[in-house]
Task: inverse folding
């Protein structure tokens, strides 16, 4: 930046002054100066509008993942899972391997779980456990070459898949795993922005499909399109589209409270305000049209230094719980089964994908928050051990799903694995 200011000072001087100072103007020097200005403008644009200055982007941890196609590698995975710490009576085992970039999970008929994936994989999977031993013996690729098909939702025999700008539907999919049908395009008019463009999707108890549209930036205002930083909903055929919740920066997980039908969701806080602010959020929407603060307010009372003057924290919905800053809270589910002890029933399990630019990494774990009388209690760590040191991790939890027997599935997009957590004294 100091060099940039020097260049500006040089350009600002009259030509005669530069010549008197012995600074000869040449095409080469002028070209260098112009390039410096352009580079500085790109830096400023990235910082203010995208939210990430190029020089600030860094990966604080190295992901070390074993191969999964050989028996020795399977043994290595089991060895690493043995180091995952859980409450007494809980056990974690491998459910599926070789599921590259696996993201959202959606249980289908018994013995079948559908999964989306990251952009680099571009695939939609079916995890097949035909013999009921809670270990998928077959991974079927239903679709490939898609644009970040992160979200999947199974309903009435059809699988809905969310790309960045489209919602697709694969009909009668359970009967056609080895010969998938051509997808029906439900909607193809979502924004094409890739920044926070991946979409977790889920059907509500009322039959509507809920689809988030993340903010296309670290922090910004986009009044030209009210869909940004929101959760939208529509009928299964794409009709009756509306924005359900506003001010939601980037939610990658939501579920409905079985006690009152309210929509609860995680939301990732903005970056570049330091290691410890702002928090991620766990929110609850009780009616359509509520605003949850972004970009004016973060957490319960953190006014944004740039956009805080345009809106007040008191005018937005406060989160049910403030979660670990930069922990990247993603997939979440209410636990409605009975296999786990009473403490966990009716509470929320949520995956923390892990920080990407914090000075000391955090997250990379599965957490839990009890819900009592409609209010979230203090979050607690449930499973951890994927972050092995300050600069090495072997996995990044993404999404959770409850199986019919009451056990819990957990996806890991870094390792390309899906785990099963069960309780047995």
Result:
């Amino acid at each position: 930046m100091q060099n940039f200011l020097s260049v500006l000072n040089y350009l600002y001087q009259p030509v005669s002054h530069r010549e008197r100072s012995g600074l000869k103007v040449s095409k080469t020097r002028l070209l260098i100066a112009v390039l410096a200005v352009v580079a500085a403008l790109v830096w400023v644009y990235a910082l203010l509008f995208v939210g990430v200055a190029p020089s600030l982007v860094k990966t604080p941890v190295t992901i070390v993942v074993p191969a999964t196609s050989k028996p020795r590698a399977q043994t290595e995975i089991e060895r690493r899972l043995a180091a995952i710490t859980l409450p007494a009576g809980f056990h974690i085992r491998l459910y599926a391997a070789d599921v590259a970039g696996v993201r959202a999970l959606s249980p289908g008929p018994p013995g079948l779980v559908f999964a989306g994936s990251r952009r680099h994989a571009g695939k939609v999977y079916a995890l097949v456990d035909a013999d009921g031993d809670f270990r998928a013996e077959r991974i079927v690729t239903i679709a490939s070459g898609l644009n970040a098909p992160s979200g999947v939702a199974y309903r009435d025999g059809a699988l809905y898949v969310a790309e960045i700008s489209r919602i697709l539907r694969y009909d009668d999919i359970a009967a056609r795993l080895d010969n998938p049908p051509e997808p029906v395009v439900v909607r193809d008019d979502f924004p094409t922005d890739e920044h926070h463009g991946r979409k977790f999707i889920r059907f509500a108890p009322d039959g509507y499909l809920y689809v988030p549209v993340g903010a296309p930036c670290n922090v910004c205002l986009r009044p030209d399109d009210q869909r940004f930083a929101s959760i939208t909903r529509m009928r299964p055929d794409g009709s009756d589209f509306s924005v359900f919740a506003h001010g939601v920066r980037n939610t990658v997980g939501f579920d409905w409270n079985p006690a009152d039908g309210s929509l609860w969701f995680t939301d990732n806080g903005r970056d570049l305000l330091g290691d410890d602010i702002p928090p991620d959020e766990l929110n609850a929407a009780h009616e359509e049209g509520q605003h949850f603060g972004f970009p004016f307010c973060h957490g319960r009372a953190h006014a944004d230094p740039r956009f805080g003057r345009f809106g007040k924290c008191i005018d937005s919905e406060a989160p049910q719980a403030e979660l670990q800053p930069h922990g990247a809270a993603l997939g979440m589910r209410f636990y409605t089964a009975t296999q786990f002890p009473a403490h966990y029933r009716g509470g929320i399990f949520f995956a923390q994908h892990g920080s990407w630019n914090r000075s000391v990494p955090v997250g990379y774990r599965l957490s839990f928050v009890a819900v009592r009388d409609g209010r979230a209690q203090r979050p607690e760590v449930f499973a951890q051990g994927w972050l092995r040191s300050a600069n090495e991790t072997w996995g990044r939890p993404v999404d959770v799903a409850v199986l019919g027997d009451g056990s819990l599935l957990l996806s890991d997009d870094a390792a390309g694995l899906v785990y099963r957590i069960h309780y047995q004294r």
